[in-house]
Structures are given as C-alpha cells and as structure tokens.
Fold this protein.
Amino acid sequence: MARDNHSSCSVGEMIFVVCGDQDLAKLNSIEMLDYGYNKESSWQLIKIEGLTPRISPLVSALTDVSILIMGGFDGREHLSDAFIYDFCAPAGQNSRQVIKQGSLKLMCQSNTIKTANGEVQ
C-alpha cells in the first residue's frame, strides 16, 4: 500500500512503516517486512486495535520484539499518546496504550523514555 506522511524504524532484520495517509485518509496500520527470514518476503499489513489513525508519529525500536508509536496528527489535533506494538505477541494482544491522549510529556535518556506519568523502557 502506498502511504504518505508515515514514520518507520527497523528492529533487527525487520522494517516497520507506521501510520501515515493514503489518498488523504489517515491510517492506523503498520506494514512490516522481515527481510532476514526470507529474501523473497512480502510486506505484511497489520491493523492496530485502539490506535487513532494519524500521520507523522514518532516511531522507535523499543526492544528486540517491540516498537513504540508516539504522537502524530489525526487531522484535527496533535496527538500526545503512546502505544507499544509487540510483534511476537498473539494477534489481539500485540498492542497496548501506555500513555493516554493528552498526557505525553517526555524526555529520552539512557534508553529510557521518561514521562510525566512514569517511565516506559
């Protein structure tokens, strides 16, 4: 799927393209390519439950099995929430909101994201 205004990151031999828009419709999905598993791999489309469709989020590898998705813009307001996507967890249990909308204030230091409400490591 072609998408604009997305963010991306890599974890090991996997590439993640997160959110963005397609024909001006905001997306709440991830496309993943595991190029180490099979040289002829194709992109997998992953829907994220509970994630507000958005453009331009901040995306970062969090651990060797998860990525962090923070903020972005939903077309009306700048978002200040955060989700963790665990790509080894079973479907339906692979994403969770760790910071609710309106409360994201953060500082990154020593592989830890420090927020006004606590820490996400």
Notes: Residues 7-120 form a domain with the Neuraminidase fold (CATH 2.120.10.80).
